[in-house]
């Protein structure tokens, strides 16, 4: 139960910090500031709840951990439930603060959304960059990794991913992060949510296979 509470809190914090930066401070801090808000939220939670749950706060990460053989299927499903619930709670708190559900930092693609990238670009970005993210996570938390630096490596990687991809999809690489804002915002965000569930999970699977088959392990 402590692990699930930690995942709930951690995912809520990720949405509050990252999406909150976009919604409440985006005009002032710009895309670079938003990118660092997501990354710093992960750094904070990695050291805050990492000792309890491993700080997955992302169903794609939990899938990667499962595929690599580091957790059971049952535990992965329980993590997913806590993560999706936490993301929804974070989005709900943000909606109360913002006074609206129209803009909660939801992901998307196509005409009218940021860089107006097409579906194939959005799909490729989310698969490839989630795979990279999971590779960094599994590598930096492995037995041979330097102790104490995983949170920093993971947070900086998420920052870099946002610096590259905000204009493409707003950056998901995390089905829960997309779920919370989209469910409350509705409309186009909800109709496009499928991509931000399918693509990150596919990317998480892809990244984990490198560890499942011992291709990136010492």
From TrEMBL:
Coiled coil: none annotated. It comes from the Bacteria. GO terms for molecular function: water channel activity. Its main location: membrane. InterPro entries: Aquaporin-like, Aquaporin_transptr, MIP, MIP_CS. One of its GO terms (cellular component) is plasma membrane. Gene3D superfamilies: Glycerol uptake facilitator protein. Keywords: Cell membrane, Membrane, Transmembrane, Transmembrane helix, Transport. The chain crosses the membrane at residues 35-67, 79-97, 117-138, 150-173, 193-213. It is a multi-pass membrane protein. It is found in: Cell membrane. Belongs to the MIP/aquaporin (TC 1.A.8) family. This is Aquaporin Z.
């Amino acid at each position: 139960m402590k692990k699930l509470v930690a995942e709930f809190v951690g995912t809520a914090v990720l949405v509050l910090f990252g999406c909150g930066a976009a919604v409440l401070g985006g005009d002032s801090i710009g895309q670079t500031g938003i990118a660092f808000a997501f990354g710093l939220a992960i750094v904070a939670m990695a050291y805050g709840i990492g000792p309890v749950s491993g700080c997955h706060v992302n169903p794609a990460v939990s899938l990667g951990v499962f595929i690599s053989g580091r957790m059971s299927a049952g535990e992965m499903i329980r993590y997913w439930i806590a993560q999706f619930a936490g993301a929804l709670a974070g989005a709900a708190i943000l909606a109360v603060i913002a006074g609206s559900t129209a803009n909660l930092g939801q992901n998307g693609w196509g005409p009218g959304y940021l860089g107006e990238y097409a579906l194939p670009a959005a799909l490729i970005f989310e698969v490839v960059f989630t795979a990279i993210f999971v590779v960094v996570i599994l590598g930096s938390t492995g037995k041979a990794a330097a102790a104490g630096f995983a949170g920093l490596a993971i947070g900086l990687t998420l920052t870099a991913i946002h610096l590259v991809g905000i204009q493409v999809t707003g950056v998901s690489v995390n089905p829960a992060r997309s779920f919370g804002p989209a469910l409350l915002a509705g409309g186009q965000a909800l109709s496009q949510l499928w991509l931000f569930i399918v693509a990150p999970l596919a990317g998480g699977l892809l990244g984990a296979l490198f560890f499942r088959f011992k291709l990136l392990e010492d």
